[in-house]
Each structure stands twice: as C-alpha cells, then as structure tokens.
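HUMAN: Can I see a protein plus its fold?

ASSISTANT:
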Amino acid sequence: MELIEALKARHSVRQYLDKPIEGETLALLEKEIAACNEESGLNFKLMLDENKAFDCMFAHYGKFKNAKNYIVLKGKPSENFEEACGYFGQRLVLFAQQIGLNTCWVAGSYNKKIPDVMGVEKGEELAMIIAVGYGENEGKPHKSKKAEDVSNVNENSPEWFKRGVEAALLAPTAINQQKFFFRLEGDKVAAKCFRGFYVKTDLGIAKYCFEVGAGKDNVRFI
C-alpha cells in the first residue's frame, strides 16, 4: 500500500479487537518508531497491553474499547515540539495503516496522571498518545472543508500544490477543526495554524499529509 493510499484509507478507530500486536508487525512498528526518534530527536515509546491509560472517565466517554496499545508522543520541550510530534506521529499513523493496523489520535480522552507508566523521563514533555491495534472496523471519513478554505489554491496552481492541499484535508485534527492554511509563495509553501486546541500538533499532521500528496521532493516549507 502506497502512502497516499494509506492516507485515503485511514480513519480514526476507537474500538479494537482483543488481539496483540506481535511478530513481524510488531518488529516493523518498533523499527519505524526508532527511525522517527532518530530523525526527530524525540523519544516516542510504544506501550503494549497497558490498561491504565484508557481506564478513566474521559476514555469511557470517548467510547474506547480494548485500547491497550498506544504510542506515547514525548520528548524534550522545544519551539517546534508540538508540530514535530504531529508530523512524526502522522508518519507513524500512516505506517501503521500500511502494515494492517488501525489508529486514533488521543489528546484528552486518556489518563494523563500516569507519566511514570508511560516512561516520561525527567525533562521531557508529554504531548499526547496514539491508540494502535486491530480495529473492529476501519472507521469513517470525517467531514472536510473545501480546498479554498485552507489554502490559496486556484485553477492556475501547480498540480503538486493542488494534490498537497487535498491530502492535507484528509489529515485528522482535534475536534475536526482543520485550523491550518497553506499558501503557495513562488515555488515555496508557507503553512500556518490559527487559534484553537492542539493546533500546532494539527499543523504538523497536516504538513506531513501535504507532503504525501504533493510529493516530498516538490515541497519546500518556509
């Protein structure tokens, strides 16, 4: 499955089968997490068969089921920490889809009072987590804004920019707010976010999706 296919097929899933992640699938996921950590300088961690994160009122309200495996997005604070967590977290989300797993970004519907369980080290910040596993279903598409709402795209825009914007519209965002904007300036792209919840993380997610659609070699962010 190509990345663009994974992006189109992937939807948030909150109900999972009671089936462990193991064997080659586990090895591939752990290898990709290590690669993201190496490239980003972050310290993401995979938690397996861990029941405490979703044992809280907010998780029950969020209708999570058998969510016992998740990726902890954490690392040392920096100016672009949240955006980097979004960018590399979405890279993992699409990779998981490619190897047959389902995912859900989780910002508030989990127990944040267990940093020791999640292995959050001294001097690190916890951004959010990503539930991962074998879904009971493949989820459903989210409602989306129009390309003109989130970019300066027009009929004269290059095809790679149009593809990038359409891919960014497939990005998961907090409460489906899609508070990002991509502006083509010459042959470069300026990406920004507006005020809202978790918008910096959302921008990182959207930028990764934009690259998937446009082709990374075509994109130079400013």
